[in-house]
């Protein structure tokens, strides 16, 4: 059940419904009166093929399905956007409309995706209400930091629809009775998986750095898929603005050397997946900001090679049984991946084309080729979450085969 509150982010809940429907979920929508100022019930009716509920005192609805039954019928109640007002009412057990009555009457878990202006979010009253709801067992996803519809910048943006989907999947997964259709249960149960993701930032001086265009989306999706498959996941993430994937231990780092350090601390593991775009080189960072002097020549930097994290893990004394690298290439993708496989000593390379017109860096889709000493398996262009789920399923299979062959 999706409860839609009266916030500007209500339009994103239309996309959330679409994403859930794509994954085979049935979604029943309840709207507050304020929500209907932002999106129409008809839009949700069209997307869900279900009646949209909004009236506590509707004689017809009450006769067809009473509000108590409605509150118990769902596997999970998701409130998105969760307005400051809804959080306040829920925290205090008020039930002056259908949405809050369902929240009080339900026997299921509740997941809130707050969305509001940053001052509203940071207000002590809202923070008290959130703490109360968390204390009562409610789950939360977001809010994220970023630019608001009102033009201010800070925490309060609703989590993106796919982040909410991941939180829903994690909530259903942790409730052993339930799961979204198609979720492979337990293929990596009892395993430890270490994933790296995102770019690294290599400092030039205290205010400048060298970076790359990696968004961290693919690595995060892999971490989330591995957690969903039952693994204990350590995600070592470079600087990105994405929310942490649910159910993972996240270590945030900035530079390649910090990433290596965090990975070495996280080992031993059964599987290592190096999806991060680690900078090959750094400069020796200046301790103070490099000043632009009138008439002086531009500074010249010489690059120093960074440690090769993938090769280090592949040759470590406590080498994970499966070491998987990513090859982001702009030409001769498979040939470069084959060469990287041999040079780094890993078991598998996931190669992808990141040339500008591929839209892979920062985009939501990826076209992956799995290169191993047994050959190449090419997948069509797929959403990064789907690539992640397929990859995790393949790795679980390869791990089982390796162990059986031993
Ligand atoms: C243009 C506009 C945008 C709003 N956006 C938000 C918002 O993002 N988050 C929020 O908590 N309230 C927002 N509000 C205020 C809520 O709509 C208001 O508190 C309402 O009573 C919430 O009702 P509900 O919680 O029953 O949906 C907004 C109001 C207006 C006029």
Q: Can you count the beta strands? A: 19
What's the helix count?
14
Looking at this structure, what is the CATH superfamily of the largest domain?
A: CoaB-like
What is the C-alpha radius of gyration, as a whole number of Å?
24 Å
Fraction of residues in H or I helices: 25-40%
Span from first to last CA? 47 Å
The largest beta-sheet arranges its strands as: 12-11-8-13-16-17-18-19
CATH class descriptor of the largest domain: Alpha Beta
From the spread of the alpha carbons, the general shape counts as globular
The assigned CATH architecture of the largest domain is: 3-Layer(aba) Sandwich
Runs with pLDDT <50, length 5+?
176-184
Q: What are the distinct ligands in this entry?
A: flavin mononucleotide
**Fraction in beta strands:** 15-25%
Structural domains: how many: 2
CATH topology of the largest domain, which one? Rossmann fold
Question: Secondary structure elements and their pairing?
Answer:
Blueprint: E1 2-4, H1 10-22, E2 29-31, H2 41-48, H3 59-64, H4 67-73, E3 76-82, H5 84-91, H6 98-105, E4 109-114, H7 118-122, H8 124-135, E5 139-140, E6 144-147, E7 153-157, H9 161-174, E8 192-197, E9 202-205, E10 208-210, H10 217-228, E11 232-237, E12 248-252, H11 256-266, E13 271-274, E14 281-283, E15 303-305, H12 309-314, E16 322-329, H13 333-344, E17 348-353, E18 365-372, E19 375-383, H14 384-405
Parallel strand pairs: 1-2, 1-3, 3-4, 4-5, 8-11, 8-13, 11-12, 13-16, 16-17
Antiparallel strand pairs: 6-7, 9-10, 14-15, 17-18, 18-19
Bound molecules: flavin mononucleotide (FMN).
């Amino acid at each position: 059940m999706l409860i839609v509150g009266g916030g500007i982010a209500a339009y994103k809940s239309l996309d959330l419904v679409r994403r859930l429907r794509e994954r085979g979920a049935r979604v029943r929508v309840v709207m507050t009166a304020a929500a209907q100022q932002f999106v129409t019930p008809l839009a949700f009716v069209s997307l869900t093929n279900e009646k949209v509920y909004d009236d506590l005192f509707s004689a017809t609805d009450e006769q067809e399905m009473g509000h108590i039954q409605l509150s118990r019928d769902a596997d999970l109640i998701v409130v998105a956007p969760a307005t400051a007002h809804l959080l306040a009412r829920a925290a205090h057990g008020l039930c002056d409309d259908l949405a809050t009555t369902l929240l009080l009457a339900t026997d299921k878990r509740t997941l809130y995706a707050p969305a509001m202006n940053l001052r509203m979010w940071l207000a002590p009253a809202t923070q008290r209400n959130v703490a109360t709801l968390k204390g009562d067992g409610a789950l939360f996803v977001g809010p994220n930091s970023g630019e608001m519809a009102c033009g201010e910048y800070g925490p309060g943006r609703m989590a993106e629809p796919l982040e909410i989907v991941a939180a829903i999947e994690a909530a259903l997964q942790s409730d052993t009775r339930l799961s979204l259709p198609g979720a492979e249960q337990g293929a990596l149960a009892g395993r430890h998986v270490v994933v790296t993701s995102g770019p690294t930032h290599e400092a030039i001086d205290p205010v400048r750095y060298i970076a790359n265009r990696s968004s961290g989306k693919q690595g995060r999706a892999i971490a989330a898929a591995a957690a969903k498959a039952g693994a204990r996941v350590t995600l070592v993430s470079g600087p990105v603005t994405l929310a942490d994937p649910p159910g993972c231990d996240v270590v945030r780092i900035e530079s390649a050397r910090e990433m290596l350090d965090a990975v070495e601390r996280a080992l031993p593991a059964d599987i290592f997946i190096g999806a991060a775009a680690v900078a090959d080189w750094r400069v020796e960072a200046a301790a103070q900001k490099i000043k632009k002097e009138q008439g002086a020549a531009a500074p010249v930097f010489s690059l120093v090679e960074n440690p090769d994290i993938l090769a280090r893990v592949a040759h470590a004394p406590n080498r994970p049984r499966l070491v998987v690298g990513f090859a982001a290439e702009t030409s001769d993708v498979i040939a470069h991946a084959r060469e990287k496989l041999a040079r780094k000593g890993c078991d598998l390379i996931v190669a992808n084309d990141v040339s500008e017109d591929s839209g892979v860096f920062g985009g939501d889709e990826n076209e992956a080729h799995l290169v191993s000493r047994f050959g190449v398996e090419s997948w069509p262009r797929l959403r990064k979450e789907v690539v992640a789920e397929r990859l995790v399923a393949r790795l679980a299979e390869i791990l089982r085969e390796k162990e059986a062959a031993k």
